[in-house]
Amino acid sequence: DGVIGGAAAKAPEKEVSVVFTDIFDSTRLWLESQQGMNDAIDIHNHIIRTMLHKHSGYEVKTIGDSFMVAFANVIDAAGFALSVQDQLVQQQWPTSLGLS
């Protein structure tokens, strides 16, 4: 089982909805500002994991800046995706990344 917010999360069973995330153009951003991306990854991962918990999701695995997450139903998966996008747009990202 995965760990979310310090508590064990139970993997969904039977039919599941799977969501994959990825940071667009992250290779370029890492090359331009390693410290900025370190800070951005911390913000990004906090948002993903917070929304995952809120929408009853399960963290399957991470690879680099990507997440594979699963949900017991499509409603929770869609709610997660919309909430993550909303939170990401509202963030103040490191100025060295030029994302404003």
Describe, in short, the structure shown.
The protein is an alpha+beta fold and 100 residues long. It has three helices and five strands, in the order βββααββα.
Describe the structure.
There is one protein chain. Helix content is 45%, strand content 22%. The strands form 2 sheets. A 3-stranded antiparallel β-sheet has the order 3-5-4. Strands 1-2 form a two-stranded antiparallel ribbon. It starts with a strand and ends in a 10-residue tail after the last helix. Strand 1 (2-4) and strand 2 form a beta hairpin. It is α+β, with helices and mostly antiparallel strands and 100 residues long. Helix 1 packs across helix 2 and helix 2 (34-54) packs antiparallel against helix 3 (74-90). The protein is built from 3 helices and 5 strands.
What characteristics describe this protein?
elongated, alpha+beta, 3 helices, three-stranded antiparallel beta sheet, 5 strands, single chain, 22% strand, 100 residues, two-stranded antiparallel ribbon
Strand-and-helix sequence, N→C?
EEEHHEEH
What is the count of DSSP helices, taking H or I runs of 4+ residues?
Answer: 3
Distance between the termini: 37 Å
Backbone shape: elongated
Structural category? alpha+beta
Percent of residues in beta strands: 15-25%
